[in-house]
Amino acid sequence: MNTIYADVYSMSDAAITDFKTFQFASDQDHTYGLFKDGEMVSLVTAVIYKDTVGIWNMGTPTIHQKNGYGSELLKYVMKAHKDMGGKNFFLFATTAGKFLYDKCGWITLDYLPYLSKVTKK
To answer: Does 89 score more than 80 pLDDT?
Structure first.
């Protein structure tokens, strides 16, 4: 997972450590990985609240993109959570990810650009 976070999200080791503490705060949240030849080629986290599933933190390493791994994993996670009673699904997509989500049947309700800024102490 650390390799994917560093590659896809350009996160530092310190940021990854902090992020994991936040990410696994609930025992209902699940991170799924797709492995090929012993290597994680895609990951996605599903955050659960009652019958609502939030899909976030999806990533596929640069060298494995455009091979269908993200689509395969996302479809698996969506089906698994639908089978477990998930009725509402949502996610926030970057411009880079929007094509994948459209291809998997997601509908864009509105586009809100997400901006972040690193603050210095």
So the answer is: yes
